[in-house]
Batch of 3 targets.
Target 1
Amino acid sequence: MIRLLIVDDHPVVRTGLAVMLSDEPGFEVVAEASDGEQAVRVAAATRPDVVLMDLRMPGVGGVEATARITAAGDAKVLILTTYETDDQILAAIEAGASGYLLKAAPQAEIVAGIRSVAAGQSALSPQVAVRLVERMRHPERESVLTARETEVLRLVAAGNSNKQVASSLGIGESTVKTHLLKVFEKLGVADRTRAVTLAMERGLLR
């Protein structure tokens, strides 16, 4: 019997997963948690085999909770989330996660992933596997931003819209969008907020 802990801040998601997985032979949902802090406590108390961990939750997030649970040896962690940016994938795996699946994955893929992780193997969704392979094949994509890309991102960080950035730099709004897409690709993110945050963390913006 594979004992499961489901961690997600959305009650409907937790309930849906619990119902779905309880119907699978050989699975037992022993507990649920609504945030990372609670997940760490519950994992220590119930010692599940596998923790299904969401990433973005209030308070302690999925990455930190994963690191604490795996460091304590309380369970193996399988990330189950809607997000798949490169930095999130790598952060979760570096924290000790044994797998990374998307919530949109077919039920059979999620079930197979749980069984693989419980057996000491890894489980990656096809989309995530492709992202990791591409990152290894093309490390140059992590290169430093160009001067213009940095300029665009600095204006975005100051709260300017694409239209305002275009006006400030004397370029078209579509050109601003193109620069931002290149920034997103280089930093492995999917939105402006994360691009600014990560660029600051890496010292690309001051």
Target 2
Amino acid sequence: MTFDNRIYNFAAGPSAVPGEVLKQAADELLNWRGLGTSVMEISHRSKEFMAVYEEALADLRTLMNIPDSYEILLLQGGGIGQNAAIPMNLMALGQNGPKADFIVTGIWSEKSLKEAEKYGVAHLAATSADLQFNTVPPRSSWQLSDDAAYVHYCDNETIGGVEFSDVPDVGNKPLVVDVSSSILSKEIDVTKGGVWFGGAQKNIGPSGVTIVIVRKDLLGHSMKITPSIWDWSKQSANQSMLNTPPTFSIYMAGLGFKWLLKKGGVKAIAKINQEKANLLYNFIDQSSLYENRIAKEYRSRMNVTFFLKDENLNAAFLAQSNAAGLVALRGHKAVGGMRASIYNAMPLEGVQALVEFMRDFERRA
């Protein structure tokens, strides 16, 4: 299926949505399932929408092989909202008072630690700040606490372009994992973590819904100060509908799950994602103009950061790439340089087009 006048969108989030999903949503917008209305105009408790909700949960369970011992919550507030909800729901499990360990590998895990400090002891167990967040601290250097309630890390740092190569072993402490930028991009063993969370706006669909996958034995431990909307046990008891949920975002996420299943599931998309990342990194590594500064074993497959060795060329690079239909390549203001986010919806052809542009720009520079 082709779509006229569609750019290659390398934005970090909200990011590209598969064209097939957008086309289906457009076709159904005014008259969804013959009801004479759109899905966003019906009651969230109607049988029609509840069918959408239940099907989305079932498809996500299939895609990620989530066992029944885990609850799936579809919430609002994004990862930043969960940075507050997580300590309020789990920190009380600390043996000597509210406490959690944090592995800080970039700006997002740093934000998580700072938010958690409001609710208890947020212990910095390891950090790569002294290495400009260009790597993951060696597991042997982590100073984990005996009395912490959980260990938190960010699987993929969207801004810096660092990704964990596997799920770390932290013993019997529950792992809390921010998968905002990597959910459904690769296979993971859900049972290795206690909580997996992330927004939909990178690998799934539009912004608005936040997915929280929590082991059921971790429900029911919230602090008294926890607002009802952030209390996982209350949301679980109300099918994530303690308040009116983001119905259109849930519907779109469901379409995204269907699209991914049709593509062959997570295993199939992971292979394509690796191919895209290899193509771009291999070109950067042999280039005399571009460089990537992340340790090779921890390079993100979703957010490829790179720099022009002559930064006087940055403005020209961005102007010309944008004119070529390769948009949103400017790096985050905190780190500078360039960033190509190549999430699930980015086709291999888009990365091929980017590499060809980069090669031509280097030749002309």
Target 3
Amino acid sequence: MSTADAVEPATTTSAPAGTSDPAPPTRTVAERAAAPATLPAVTAGGLTWRGARREDAQAVLTILNELAAADNAPFRWSLPEIEERLAAPYRDLDRDFLLGSDDTGTLRAFADVHTPPADETVARAILQGGVHPDRRGEGIGRELLAWQIARGRQKLAASALADRQVPAWLAVYMEDDAPETLGHTFERAGFAARRYYSDLRRDLSEPIPPVSAPPSGGTLRLVRWTPELDEPTRLARNDAFRDHWGSQPQTRETWAEDRTAFMPAWTYVVVDDAPDVAALLASPDTDDETAAALRAGEPLVVAYQIASKYVEDFEVRGFTFGYSDNVGVRRAYRGRGLAPTVMAAGMRAMADDGMRYAVLDVDTENPSGAVGLYATLGYEKQGGSRMLAIDL
């Protein structure tokens, strides 16, 4: 599945369009979450409900892809992605998942509530699920969403941020082309659009900008990703997205997730072989992990483009493509043309492997000028999606 992570919509929030940023909350997350002691029962449709098990991966994959098709999503899930989700050590399969089966044992409804474990400055509960198209119109979806909202409140109240006065919200994601009834269901439950994303693609048969050595007196080096550069790339990502509204850091554990479609051959980074360590250590923008890495003499990745190959999506979209999951440049290194450098290298590698297009998603309010950059590189909008949220 192509996850819209190029500019991290799943970790971004904002005030509603046309309004100023909300005032800092004056009550804790737990107080605002108002977690219910018990969860509402789902009785509509006469389904049998239970939590999830790791051996449910194939059944979950089937219903998620049926939901994706019914809701006009331009992606499909793969079995390794579902297996990874069900194996995550921080997910409570019994309490955070709800599976509804009919009399034949076939899965007809699915719900998942997820609180990212690395959140530091915003508490998020992300809701996913739905009802099989053959069983819609029976009231199952409304009751299932009510269960998710209640469980999301419980998880936020029990999270590591429960005692903090930070923003908190329940979030769902939907495609712009999804059925209107889906949006109406969310709106009736109190969700409102908070962020919009554009799905972009670039024809790789068109001339690709030449891949040249990055400028900076010879200290910067463009290289293909290697395992040794993975941790420096994580630190670069955390720095690059620190000034994006609501973006949360990636820990070693969360960074290692969502790699089932990862393509090292299409992933490029820029390394500074001779960084000004003293200046970086003196900068208030340098985080503690980067400072420790600098003192230890570890490689400093300053720009990157992480790419994946979502084969399951090719038939849905009608073309082959390489996907840029995440693109970023350290704040101290912006304005040097490094983003076009890593992207051009990635596009050329995708084209060499026979891909027809390069694809990515971008937050329409991205603060780093990414929208304009992608346009200059030949990317064009093909569709869009949005995040809807209940602000607590």
